[in-house]
Amino acid sequence: MDCPRCKTFGNVVEMKAASLNNIEIDLCEECGGIWFDKQELGKATNISKEDIDRFTEVLGNAKEFDKSRDTELECPRCNVPLFKYRYMYTSNIYIDECDKCEGVWIDKGELLAIVNYLEEASKIDPEKEAAILTKVKQIKHEYEQREKEFMDSLVTLDDRSRNPVSRAFGEVLQSIYSFLYKRGL
Ligand SMILES: [Zn+2]
Ligand SMILES: [Zn+2]
Asked: What whole-number distance in Å separates Cα of residue 44 and Cα of residue 24?
């Protein structure tokens, strides 16, 4: 199976079958990227950071991929374009998945980034969370108030309809709602 990342640079690099804590993967020694077959990435996120570190050392000198050079990848199994999506919808990690075989491509360094992200997400302490919630509810209230004013202003067509704050409220409200929803509120 050829490396999908190296392929975008015109290089044909055969990936090597390897085992990462008993999870079967295919890795590219050239760019340090990893191909996970269906559901293997989920298992890999339970691996400790130390084990991932040790594993990435094996990959040697490969530099982390510069994401600004990211292009569409092709599934090494099915040869169809991979679909880019944001891991957990809230992280800054973009990974490539195949709709057909559900395999996932991870560039060098991203597995560790995912494990770090999951660790951070799971340890919001209750006090901090309560403080955030209070703040969020307050913002929500303010924005709903502003939304009402904005709607009123549309009717009267006054200057407030050109207020950039009003224009952005939809997006802000949406993220607040999803924040509250995720916490079951
Ligand atoms: Zn590669
Ligand atoms: Zn595929």
From this structure: 10
Give the separation between CA 3 and CA 63, rounded to whole angstroms.
15
What is the greatest pairwise CA distance in the chain? 67
- What is the distance in A from the centroid of ligand 2 to the CA of 165? 44
Write down the mean pLDDT value for the chain.
80
Residue type, 82: L
Cα of 45 vs centre of ligand 1, distance in Å, is 21
More confident residue, 6 or 161: 6
Domain locations in the chain? 4-122, 126-182
pTM, two decimal places: 0.66
Identity of the highest mean pLDDT range in 19-28, 41-50, 111-120:
19-28
Q: Compute, in angstroms, the gap from residue 124 CA to the centroid of ligand 2.
A: 36
